[in-house]
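Ticket reopened. Same input as before:
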Amino acid sequence: MEMSTIAPILSETKADPFVLSYETLEKSVDASSPPWVRALRHSGNAHFEEVGFPDTSHEEWRFTNVGPISRLNAHAPRAEDLIAATPESISPYLFKSLASTTLVFVNGVLDLALSCLTGLTKGVEVVDLPTAIRQELPWVAAHLGRYARVDENAFVALNGSMIENGVAIRIPANVKVEAPVFILFLSTSQADGATVHSRILIVAGHHSEARVVESHAGLADSAYFSNSVAELVLEEGAKLEHCRLQFERTTAFHVATVQAHQARSSNLTTHSISLGARLARINVTPVLDAEGCECTMNGLYVAEGDQLVDHHTTIHHAKPNCNSHEFYHGILDGKAQGVFNGKIFVRPDAQRTDAKQTNRNLLLSDEATINTKPQLEIFADDVKCTHGATVGQLQDEAIFYLRARGIGLEAARRMLVHAFASSILNRITIDEVRTYLDDQMFDLFERPPA
Amino acid sequence: MLEIKNLHAEAAGKKILKGLNLTLRKGEVHAIMGPNGSGKSTLAQVLAGRDAYEITAGSITYLGQDLLDLEPEERAREGVFLAFQYPVEIPGVNSTYFLKAALNELRKHRGLPELDAIDFLQLVKEKMKILELPQSLLNRPVNEGFSGGEKKRNEIFQMAVLEPRLAVLDETDSGLDIDALRIVAEGVNKLKGPENAQLVITHYQRLLDYIVPDFVHVLYDGKIIRTGDKSLALDLEERGYDWLLEAYEKNGRRAESVPA
Ligand SMILES: Nc1ncnc2c1ncn2[C@@H]1O[C@H](COP(=O)(O)OP(=O)(O)OP(=O)(O)O)[C@@H](O)[C@H]1O
Ligand SMILES: [Mg+2]
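Engineering reply: fixed in the latest deploy. New output:
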């Protein structure tokens, strides 16, 4: 029939909706934006138009097919599609006893009514991105887009092309922030293809200390898309704990890049906890760009059903005398697919590097799969580098030990799976978050079926 | 209370137990000795229900039930306890949480109400005192990073909390220093009672100075080749196993006709 001959022509001539979104943004706000923001958008779009979405022939995307994202009818969330975000509807994603600064972004936009900006340590700046751009804050201009480069991959490029929403945080030098800063990005559109490109910039001044929690969640079971980029800048001696929680709906797509830059003697801890989304791809890329840096990367991914969860971590040891430790655990059930790729680059300069990486995976069903691969590229000679990956089931000896004390087979299994998750969660120093996640793990693995 | 008849067990195609007979009555303490690799731990694991061992013949009756019919957890709930020769480290599972879960499973099975956190801690404190264990061990994951001796003491501590009817101790004495040996033995003796039985596997007469057995058995080649009273352990301590094993071989590897 006629349609079949027309359809291909139509789809060929139709502009990519991601590019269309950019063009819409360009028409509406770009002209009034400062040149450094426009430059970021333009180069992001130019790069995206040049490379397009990667397919599985691309080495970095071998196991993760982003075709379903590329085929989305991408659009900025539309008012008529949204579910209202209320204190009740967001409460499952907040930590009960967390009294500190909380910023809630609903479909990319800061919702002041749901946020709480009190309790901020003196001197700390937390600014939503539209304000930071309007006010042309020099420290934002100096750092935004400098580390997460648009030529990194198509998704960072897209995020750059659409830069508008998100948050910038600056911890002044020598300030220790006790209470964690909590940021929630919530998607609420019921329309497939609703897309938000969120952005975080954290600049930790020299010898400052802070903890930031970044959560991503959704209220509607639609094929929405959350594409986020975080840039973490640690100045000399700064200490930052960055905790990233991904609780998207299992109908959603989630792609993220965490790009960190460490100056001398700084200390970074990142946690990536990924529980939701139909497809999640998270890149964590710290650059240890001066001597004496410490970097710890923790990760836990839990997936079931048809979920796919992919972590790509890349640690750049650029200078001598730095340590990095990486611990990732995965728990995969159903037909879930996991991907872990851990790169360690040790540049010729980076003598006396000590880098450790472990990735352990539990496959709870015969159909769950994991592709795990360490990738070490070492160009210095005085280096300690270890890595280990395991894939397996629960240890029979441990199950038997628990059963021999009277604990049933199923309960024993659940206890051990929970323990496997806890050994990563226990590395989070923010008590509220750890307890919250541990409760989630309990519900997921240990609570007996009703 | 426990009757093992003509038990044959194998693992990975290797025949390990080859017609073992053993009977324990209530209130009795039996010791099992025997050279390395003779099948002592296999017997202990089979009693606890380890499925790595296949039972090819024979029967085990425990308090009138077919023990081999029960899952490991059902045996534990019926009062069977194995103190492991090599207790497993279980990272991420808190000791208190684990033991409370275990105790409450046992109580549920016996129709008793579950203990709440406060009552449980009270109980645990008492038992820890008996074993002279530092309370900090309870805040750590099960056996993780415990010293060899701490692991063994922790097994007996668990036994003290769970109060089994049939306790099987697999070389609980090895790895213990002299003081710990006495403490552990006293702990075990406290749990002795007219309704209970204990099966103590050991290589050393020393332990039997503290835990005095009613019977001593020698396990070799997958069967009991000799049974005596506590003086048999003293004999073995003095003379080793050779004389017994030689007699056994001479007898055409038939256990029954080994002269006393
Ligand atoms: N799961 C198994 N698979 C294969 N062989 C096994 C297994 N368990 C035990 N064996 C073998 O069976 C024999 C008896 O082992 P067992 O552990 O019962 O000896 P034991 O008497 O406890 O020795 P020890 O005094 O050294 O503790 C040994 O030769 C051992 O290697
Ligand atoms: Mg043994």
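The first strand of chain B starts at residue 2 and ends at 11. The CA atoms of residues 131 and 214 of chain B lie 24 Å apart. Please confirm and we'll close it.
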